Amino acid sequence: MTAPNEPLETVSLDLSGPRHDEVLVRLAATGICASDAHTHSGRIPSPAPCVLGHEGAGVVERVGASITHVASGDHVALSWMPSCGTCRHCVSGRPVLCTAAAPAMFAGTLLDGTVRLHRGSQPVSHYSFLSTFATHAVVPASSAIRIDRQIPLGIASLVGCGILTGYGAVVNKARVAPGSSVVVFGAGGVGLSAIMAARVSGAGQILVVDPVAAKLDEARLFGATDGLVPSDDLVEQIRDLTGGGADVAVDAAGGEGILGQAFSATVPGGTIVCVGIPDVRARPSLPGAELVRDEKVITGSLYGSSRPSVDIPSILRQYAAGALPLDRMITRSYRLDQIGDAFVDMRAGRLKRGVVVFDEHLAGVAPAGDDVRLAA
Prior knowledge:
30% helix, globular, oxidoreductase
């Protein structure tokens, strides 16, 4: 990306080798996330020129001198949020809040404040430490997470962002209990991942709210029990279906007014988890008296409140065991030079998730086609 709203270019860049605490990965596949499109449109500011992409999986080609947790030839899924391991959040078990990572991410560098990408003499910024819209990437050590070699890397590429975000909001933050009721606002990739997580957590009712009827039908395939479209009486419908209010609400969309609806639709003592990021100017309000009297918990969840090195392998093990139908998430695959088409499809709402395929055999996904089926 040379600048926001300019056509994306497919070019050859120079990539420096990994430093002592970094890993060189050959990408087999990369997911296409709405954040990439929002950055291209300028909605999410990011240094440019840069290489977009932050959902990836591939094979380790080289490791830095201090790396011991992965080796050349290992299959890895990539996490866009590395951790330093020493700040107050990392040592307390909340690595997604790492104080060292965020400044470097927003600056478009790796953790040491420098870049490995160049176009001639011009530095090229990284995107969320990964820049996976490329055949190769140099990433921080903690971003490379070793996974089972039997997992298709096309599936593994998706887990590093959208799937982990929705799954972790339910499992790590809401801690959904068996038999409880859950309402998910938004049936995109993150919302569907939250639905899957609610199902494997044993939720008795899983409601999903989305304005697109086809998405509601799709959500039922992932475990939703009821589908609702936004309406003036939405809160009353949720209360009726759940016997007074849902135990947990997940806002996977971040749209205007959703937090208020989620608050009203949960039972006293319920939990509302905010995942979708609202507009930076949004200032939602809540009824103060009810906030105290009903003891509802309102919390944010960044990146699924996860420990990526633990949660990503766990999710993939559940996929391998047949508990999480992650393969249903992939709507279409693309070649790298079709990224522009992928963004058009995503903005038109035609994708649950799109995948760019670099290595058909390792990805387990055909390189380009409307009807995606995992390879045997």
